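A quick aside before the break. I want you to see a complete sequence-to-structure record at least once, exactly as it would be stored in a machine-readable document. Don't worry about memorizing anything.
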Amino acid sequence: MAIGSGLGAQLGIAPESTYGTYVAPTKFIEFTKEGLQLKKTTAQSAGIAAGRLLPLSSRRVVTQRQASGSIDLEVTTKAMGLLLQALMGTSVTPVQQETTTAYLQTHTLADVAGKSLTIQKGVPLTTGVVTRKNFLGCKVVSGEFSCGVGEMLTASFEIDAKDVEETSVLAAASYPTMAPFHFTQMAVKTGTYSSEAARNGIRKASVKIERPQDVERFYAGASGLKAEPITNDQVKITGSLEMDYVDTILDDLHTSDAATSLVLEFLGATIEDTYAETFRITLPAVRFDEAPPVVDGFGIIKPTLSFTGLFDGTNQPRIEYISTDTTL
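That is the input. The structure line, written in tokens, reads:
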């Protein structure tokens, strides 16, 4: 029996080969909060019959089923690959670094067609029995990463799903030994692409990647379930940097509206030789939208600089992840 509270909950994930077809979970993620839930559309018959004061229960029908919600978690040194692949779109195979136990995943921005997940949620009853809800055809529609002074690197993934079923067996959860990335390991760099330099004074950084998709593809003959969402708009990348006003480098970029490459990097423990546990977001071109260094009291000036990620014409945004994971 599990603990009859959130302490006994679990989330398992697996990549699907066919959109919306259940695959038993192969990875289990440690999460801080989730909001996945079934959404059904119903229609009620409204026929008039002499003396009938209430609609007939037998004439209520379910016309559509789908699901959505979010998963919040700490970004860890293992088990992040499947979510990153579903967000970024590239089919990734971890690449061994020389002869070490370090493996590099490079998640470059691409179309997300065919990138869906089964997500199994285990929800405990107070009795300790864990109920299962299997979310099928899960597409990641956005991912946001954030870290500030004294904080862990956190991520929030917004999910759209085709359906929910509760018949497949609850998988036994297991977790690898891993650690969270955190502020002590963080560096923010800007400058010319591939030769960016670390910036001083940064107190918090966040990056959000949105993958717009048509999630309303409901057609006749599909039992009220949607077809796989299709990308229907350009990718949106936004973010912000909170800093002490130690220099004008970023402020000057706002004033001139010049582009710069931006790197958000976390380096953890050494795996082997020169290879460390790594989480790195590279945005080859960003432009700052707002950077107001306003004086609102006696203290240090603390501007928040918001930016938009754009295409530099050559290099796509990417997320690099070095861990000991040999598979996603």
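Two observations worth writing down. The chain has one domain: 6-38+62-164+177-323. The chain is about 5% helix and 45% strand. We'll return to this after the break.
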